[in-house]
Amino acid sequence: MKKLLGIALAFALGASPAIALANSTLVDQGALDGRSYHENMYKRDNCKMCHGVDAPTDYPADESCLKCHNVDKLAQKTARDGEEEWQNPHNNLHWGKEVPCVECHAEHQEKQPMCADCHTFEYPNHKK
Fold first, then answer.
1. Is the pLDDT of residue 46 over 80?
2. Structural domain of residue 55, as residue ranges?
3. Quick one: which of 53, 49, 50 has its CA closest to 62?
4. What does the alpha-carbon distance between residue 68 and residue 35 come to, in Å, rounded to a whole number?
């Protein structure tokens, strides 16, 4: 029993720095490519991590997304120059940096970006 407890404790202490590094990297880099990094949230906290409750009935609040994603860094990553400056999905003419995340992003299904309702410009790195 002591041996098993020792192994579990060693594993937990060894994993903690890796988890902390992964979390700080998410915040530092804004969004990461793809959504595979969200899979750990499903296993660890299920719906509660984003939705705040175990049995959600609505979209998560932006604050849930902003725990891991930095809006200023996202805006910087998606910035455009010249006449296309305001075609930045994370800092645009209509909403600035206040566009609700769920207007363009959906975790459980594909979603058309809100801008595409009226505009035809493309974002080559856009992930649905």
1. no
2. 2-117
3. 50
4. 13
pLDDT for position 84: 85
How many whole angstroms separate alpha carbon 41 and alpha carbon 126?
A: 22
Q: How many domains does the chain have?
A: 1
Which has more pLDDT, 48 or 39? 48
Longest dimension (CA), the chain: 67
Residue 112 lies in a domain: yes
Residue 126 lies in a domain: no
Does a structural domain hold residue 125? no
> What DSSP designation does 35 have?
S
User: Average pLDDT, stretch 95-108?
Assistant: 87
The model scores a pTM over 0.70: no
DSSP letters spanning 102-120: GGT--SSS----GGGGT--
| Residue-averaged pLDDT of the chain | 72
